[in-house]
């Protein structure tokens, strides 16, 4: 008796699931490979179906499949069950029909035309000392290849400088674009031009409407309190190309995959990226306005505090935290940005993106009686003007903008004036023509930590020996003492990452055993975010403690140096160096 079409489809689905569970396809491939290799004569060029079936029967694969697929069909209630697994019972009166799709099929040209994200290209210059600088940042419109008859097009683009040189040409780049696989049908130039014109019109209208809304919102904010005019409420910021963008567009949830395991490890990663303020041409104490896009920041591995805060906020959002970038000031009214997270228990935590330090915010209540003990702030922040992330922008409208007295009840509009989420979404949401292209995924480090540690340590030994030779001193290295310094360096990095100190007792006990009675031990640890040994040694000599060790005089002087490189994504690294010496004092 033939099965109804719907039940036949259901039966096929059950058989597919069982075959996949038994890995029948894999077993058939193994048999096929063995048969071709062992049983088919070299003069035979093809393997027939009968040969394959005979091989499968000899190995008992067909019998195993038939035993597992003993199907019992009950036509009375139209239920299909599998035997011998009575615990699995399939009942579905209206099984959904799955459409067959070809995963290797490329989308057509019309669909690709709707993808408006450009290709972001960044040009970096690296000098002989490994220092990087940002030369150009360019957003390439790639869709011109959709009209190329031979799927190849050549484009010449003029690259402009960045920051204060954003109007200065740095060169012309010839680009060859080629589409793989070849499109079945190409588009006409007229269609491309019409699409670009519509996108430009739509973008201009969205930007105009958001600007009108932002001006109205700002007027309302100033009417609350006249002193609001002096607060750091930053709605727009210039990128490296001098383009004004809403600050919310610099943030987007970013997942680190398996490269970073915890939010604190992410904070540590951001902190080891170099800090560099945008250069200012001319005198004065003003600060050059430049917020780098994420790709430009990661490519040169250094940036200003805003770049660090934007990256850290994006990573914390990726970990599912409610994170915001804070714009305010620190000591001496210096503008600064940092990150804040709001816990479900109401705890506010500040994250300093330049150091990875965390601070719990405990507000001071000025109206409390004088005898009530008030918390003492441990964070370096003084005022806060606004906070934002990829979906929200809120301005501080409390009587005082001092961080220590601020309440972070973000749902209370009498304390924090919000912008419309719909207005922000119109210009900052992913896929919007006005927003930045999708953030690139983080790349795994290309640094071999062990090799890099050995290389820097060897170079430092040579530099110390030469330095002491110039002073007329001999140098004797103690390899065992150098090795004993490793646990201390690992403990320092662990403390920077987790704020937990561990392993100090074992390190001190090992040093006591290695230093004989009557001898003195001195150690000097220091931390860097670069791997230039000569530059690091020059910095170390500025410390009187390090100079005292490298210039140590006495009886039975033994020197030690240990380097430990901790690799992070994007080839960022934390480099810990410890100089040490032991000697018998003759005084």
Automatic annotation (TrEMBL):
<comment type="similarity">
    <text>Belongs to the CEP76 family.</text>
</comment>
<feature type="domain" description="CEP76 C2">
    <location>
        <begin position="79"/>
        <end position="184"/>
    </location>
</feature>
<dbReference type="InterPro" id="IPR028926">
    <property type="entry name" value="CEP76-C2"/>
</dbReference>
<feature type="domain" description="CEP76 N-terminal">
    <location>
        <begin position="10"/>
        <end position="69"/>
    </location>
</feature>
<comment type="function">
    <text>Centrosomal protein involved in regulation of centriole duplication. Required to limit centriole duplication to once per cell cycle by preventing centriole reduplication.</text>
</comment>
<dbReference type="InterPro" id="IPR056290">
    <property type="entry name" value="CEPT76/DRC7_peptidase-like_dom"/>
</dbReference>
<dbReference type="InterPro" id="IPR052299">
    <property type="entry name" value="CEP76"/>
</dbReference>
<dbReference type="Pfam" id="PF24654">
    <property type="entry name" value="CEP76_N"/>
</dbReference>
<dbReference type="InterPro" id="IPR056288">
    <property type="entry name" value="CEP76_C"/>
</dbReference>
<dbReference type="Pfam" id="PF24652">
    <property type="entry name" value="CEP76_C"/>
</dbReference>
<dbReference type="GO" id="GO:0005814">
    <property type="term" value="C:centriole"/>
</dbReference>
<keyword id="KW-0963">Cytoplasm</keyword>
<keyword id="KW-0206">Cytoskeleton</keyword>
<dbReference type="GO" id="GO:0046599">
    <property type="term" value="P:regulation of centriole replication"/>
</dbReference>
<dbReference type="Pfam" id="PF15627">
    <property type="entry name" value="CEP76-C2"/>
</dbReference>
<dbReference type="InterPro" id="IPR038765">
    <property type="entry name" value="Papain-like_cys_pep_sf"/>
</dbReference>
<dbReference type="Pfam" id="PF24656">
    <property type="entry name" value="CEPT76_peptidase"/>
</dbReference>
<feature type="domain" description="CEP76/DRC7 peptidase-like">
    <location>
        <begin position="289"/>
        <end position="419"/>
    </location>
</feature>
<protein>
    <recommendedName>
        <fullName>Centrosomal protein of 76 kDa</fullName>
    </recommendedName>
</protein>
<feature type="domain" description="Centrosomal protein of 76 kDa C-terminal">
    <location>
        <begin position="447"/>
        <end position="584"/>
    </location>
</feature>
<dbReference type="InterPro" id="IPR056289">
    <property type="entry name" value="CEP76_N"/>
</dbReference>
């Amino acid at each position: 008796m033939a099965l109804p079409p719907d039940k036949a489809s259901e039966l096929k689905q059950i058989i597919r699931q069982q075959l996949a569970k038994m890995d029948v396809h894999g077993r058939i491939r193994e048999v096929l490979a063995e048969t071709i290799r062992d049983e088919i004569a070299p003069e035979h060029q093809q393997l027939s179906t009968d040969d394959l079936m005979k091989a499968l029967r000899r190995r008992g694969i067909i019998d195993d499949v038939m035993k597992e697929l003993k199907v019992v069909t009950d036509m009375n209630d139209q239920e299909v069950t599998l035997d011998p697994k009575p615990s699995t019972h399939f009942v579905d009166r209206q099984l959904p029909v799955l459409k067959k799709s070809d995963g290797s099929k490329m989308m057509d040209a019309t669909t690709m035309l709707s993808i408006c994200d450009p290709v972001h290209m960044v040009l970096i210059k690296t000098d002989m000392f490994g220092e990087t600088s940002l030369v150009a940042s360019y957003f390439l419109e790639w869709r011109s290849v959709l009209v190329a008859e031979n799927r190849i097009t050549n484009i010449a683009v003029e690259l402009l400088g960045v920051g204060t040189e954003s109007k200065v040409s740095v060169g012309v780049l010839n680009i060859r674009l080629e589409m793989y696989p070849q499109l079945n049908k190409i588009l006409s130039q007229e269609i491309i031009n019409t699409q670009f014109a519509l996108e430009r019109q739509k973008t201009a209208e969205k930007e105009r409407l958001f600007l009108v809304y932002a001006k109205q919102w700002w007027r309302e904010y100033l009417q609350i309190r006249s002193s609001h005019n002096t607060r750091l409420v930053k709605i727009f910021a210039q990128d490296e190309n001098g383009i004004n963008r809403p600050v919310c567009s610099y943030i987007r949830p970013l997942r680190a995959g398996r490269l970073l395991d915890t939010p604190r490890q992410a904070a540590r990663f951001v902190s080891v990226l170099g800090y560099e303020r945008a250069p200012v041409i001319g005198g004065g104490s003003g600060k050059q306005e430049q917020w780098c896009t994420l790709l430009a920041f990661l490519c040169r591995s250094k940036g200003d505090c805003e770049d660090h805060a934007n990256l850290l906020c994006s990573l914390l959002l990726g970990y599912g935290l409610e994170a915001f970038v804070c714009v305010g000031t620190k000591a001496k009214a210096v503008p600064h940005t940092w990150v804040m997270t709001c816990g479900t228990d109401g705890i506010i935590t500040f994250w300093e993106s330049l150091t990875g330090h965390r601070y719990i915010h405990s507000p001071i209540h000025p109206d409390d009686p004088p005898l009530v003990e008030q918390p003492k702030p441990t964070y370096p922040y003084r005022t806060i003007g606004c906070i934002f992330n990829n979906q929200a922008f809120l301005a501080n409208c409390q009587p005082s903008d001092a961080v220590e007295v601020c309440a972070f009840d973000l749902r209370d509009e009498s304390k924090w004036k919000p912008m419309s989420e719909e207005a922000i979404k119109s210009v900052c949401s992913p896929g919007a023509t006005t927003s930045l292209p999708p953030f690139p995924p983080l790349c795994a480090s290309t640094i071999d930590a062990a090799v890099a540690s050995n290389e820097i340590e060897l170079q430092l030994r040579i530099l110390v020996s030469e330095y002491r030779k110039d002073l007329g001193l001999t140098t004797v290295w103690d390899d065992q003492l150098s090795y004993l310094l490793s646990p201390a360096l690992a403990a320092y990095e662990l403390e920077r990452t987790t704020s937990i100190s561990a392993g100090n007792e074992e390190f001190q006990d090992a040093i006591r055993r290695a230093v004989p009675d009557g001898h003195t031990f001195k150690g000097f640890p220091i931390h860097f975010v670069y791997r230039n040994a000569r530059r690091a040694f020059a910095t170390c000599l500025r410390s009187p403690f390090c100079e005292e060790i490298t210039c140590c005089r006495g009886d039975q002087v033994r020197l030690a140096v240990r380097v430990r490189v901790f690799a992070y994504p994007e080839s960022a690294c934390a480099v810990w160096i410890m100089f040490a010496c032991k000697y018998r004092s003759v005084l």
